[in-house]
Amino acid sequence: MFRILKKSLQTGSVTGQHPVGAAPSEPIGPEAIEKAKPFRRSMTIREVDTGSCNACEMEMNALANPVYDVERFGVHIAASPRHADALVVTGPVTVNMERALKDVYKATADPKIVIALGDCAVNCGMFKGSYAVTGPVDRHIPVDVRISGCPPRPAEILAVLAKLRQDESASGS
Amino acid sequence: MIDARPAVEQVQAAFTQAITEVCAVHGVPMLRVKKQDLPTVAHFLHTNPGLRGSLSLLWAVDHRPREARYELCYLFTLAERKDWLLLATDLHGDEREFPSITPHLHAAKWYEREIRDLFGLVPIGHPDLRRLVRHEHWPKGSHPLKRDFPWDRVLGRVQGEYAFRKIHGEGVFEVPVGPIHAGIIEPGHFRFSVAGEPIMQLEVRHFWKHRGVEKLFEQQQLTEAVPLSERVSGDTSVGHSLAYCQAVEMLQGVEVSPRARYLRTLFLELERLHNHIGDVGAICNDTAYALAHAHCGRMKEQLMQLNDRLTGSRFLRGVNCVGGVALDLSGLQLAQVEVELNALEQDFSDIEKIVFANASLTERLENTGILTEGIAWDHAVIGVVGRASGIDRDLRRDRPFAAYDVLQPRVALYRYGDVRARMRVRLDEIHESIRLIREVRRGLPLGRLVSRPMHQPQPGAWALSAVEGWRGEILYVVMAGDAGRIHRCKVRDPSFVNWPAIQWAALGNIVPDFPLINKSFNLSYAGNDL
Ligand code: SF4
User: Which of A101, B173, B330, B450 has a Cα-to-Cα distance from B246 of 20 to 30 A?
Assistant: First the structure.
């Protein structure tokens, strides 16, 4: 017990100790911000991987670590699309995942927004044209926000989420 | 250097009739065997007490348009000195069948199903010919790695359903999980058959993420495919790109400079570090110990920020290039790395003490998800998972690449095969990685970063390269085509070998322990599905 306390005191708070995220490379349209309005104070995200290389997943997971601590902005990660306000989709949409992506979209309650995360999700990236890929994401479901990068850094994802909250102060730190 | 000369002579003596040719490919002996004799020779290699060959890779090549021939190659790692030995056989003209070796070697099971799906070649005698990569909605006759299959064909969709293995009996029911899971993890399907709590059978149904990676390699130039190799499994960007580069360098006769070799070692160990630390945290998290998870997440983040500062990529992308490394590190940067890692090691050791003082955590780890040495050997399990089950293999020691011939890593080895052993292997390897990075800094020679190719490979020339990534053995076979293109690139992430083994490790455990077992394996879905 003493050891744990000592460690916590030594470590202190690390939240926000990261480089400032670059401004989103793709502009976020007013429609997207309008659509995100109901979720300004609390947004629950369901992540769907449609064939990523898994680096985009790793950066999504990083959002939950103590350094980025995305929960402090009211952003939660849900275990089921039924609980989600937003879908974050990664990957170029493989032939084998196409059906699952559409099902998840249908299962998510309205109103909802869809965020395509990473070059693969935005334009199929390096996998464009392959027989095994039928994306990008917006061929199958409507996409509201696009975050390019391969992968986008967590700070950049945070900056986009801040933009959607119309929260200018929290975009970097 | 020729591997395994006595072994070759032994096999030759035992099968004078069956062997039609003996040659060597970049020092690895290759025996060409008559098709019908293949199972007997493979069985001999596998079971002979002096050889104890373990199947490390099985791949096919379509030689059209140059020759109307399919070639099947079998790579064995022999137990004693970890020598390599290749078997090969040919299918000429319209032949589409070959004898399955799976009845003798469990480890061949997925490889042969994969070859059937991707090439349309049928392993006769295989006990399980359900589709593997091609899900049931793929139209009949679509075998993407055949040379006449266009890389950008639109597949279309048909009706069909995968037949899971069923267990019948009173009170037996099935729990389907996936492809989309609760956490932020990759898609895959697990089908549990349970009676009450314990798992009676687990069937892994994967390949949801199949992106056609090997076909995409065939559309590229030899010198230009490094970025694609970095995206096979993003968490292993360095491991995959290094294995790819080494294969091309062998083909071009490039002698990589000592400085580049040292830097490659450094980057590979940095990749191992952040992944292993992340895994330790994730394992603790699945026992509901959030404190350790938070600390490990913080340290992993610190390492990824370090990567970013050193190379401009949190995943160390863009460091490897054909012929060496694409960027240099200054003495000052290296000094900073060492300072940071020294602090991190102290930091991490504190967490280790906290974790192992917590009985309710260690209780969950012990005796959970045991993979016995026997089953691990039967399935040719490798990497962290193998070393936790007594499989004493590590390419950094057994077939040194980069600077490991000089640096001599110590290999972690545990025998019990449970979650705790897999965690233990990672803990040892974390400390060892930090030590190796210190050694790199101490010994880093001066010299150029990129070496020039000696020659361009002939079409049809090929090379096999191996790297011990953080998960385990990464293998690449690269065959040159016309005009500097790639004719064939076989990619093998260790996950492809270890996934079937998880089906055994889960048996008898309760379903709620499966996430913990799965985390302790932590296999790549992307690297498996390709
Ligand atoms: S965008 Fe890049 S990092 Fe993200 S999944 Fe695609 S290849 Fe991987």
Answer: B330
Q: Is residue A1 part of a domain?
A: no
Q: State the residue range of the domain holding A124.
A: 22-167
* Chain B CB within 8 Å of residue A13 CB: no
> What CATH number does residue A72 fall under?
3.40.50.12280
Question: Each residue of B321-354: pLDDT tens digit?
Answer: 999 999 999 999 999 999 999 999 999 999 999 8
Please indicate, yes or no, if residue A16 is contained in any of the structural domains: no
The Å distance, Cα B6 to ligand 1 centre, comes to 46
Domains: count for chain A: 1
To probe the interface with A, which of B142, B211, B229 has the most A CB atoms within 10 Å?
Answer: B211
| Ranges of each domain in chain B | 5-124, 213-529
Q: Over pLDDT 90: what percentage of chain A?
A: 46
Kindly report the average pLDDT of chain B as a whole number. 91
Residue A3 lies inside a defined structural domain of this protein = no
Render chain A in DSSP notation, one character per residue. -HHHHHHHHHH---TT-SPPPPPPSSPPPHHHHHHTGGGSS-EEEEEEESS--SHHHHHHHHTTSTTT-GGGGTEEE-SSGGG-SEEEEES--BTTTHHHHHHHHHHSPSS-EEEEESHHHHH-GGGTT-TTB---GGGTS---EEE-SSSPPHHHHHHHHHHHTT-STTS--
Q: Shortest CB distance from A126 goes to which of B149, B228, B308? A: B228
Q: What ipTM is given for this predicted complex?
A: 0.90
- Of the residues A50, A59, A89, A90, which should be mutated to test ligand 1's pocket, given the most ligand atoms within 8 Å of the CB? A90
Q: What is the pLDDT of residues B382-422, one digit of tens each?
A: 999 999 999 999 999 989 998 999 998 999 999 999 999 99
- The CATH code belonging to domain B5-124 is 3.30.460.80
Pick the CATH number of B213-529 from 3.40.50.300, 3.40.50.2300, 3.30.70.260, 1.10.645.10: 1.10.645.10
pLDDT (average), residues B43-67? 90
Task: Note the pTM of the prediction, 2 decimals.
Answer: 0.93
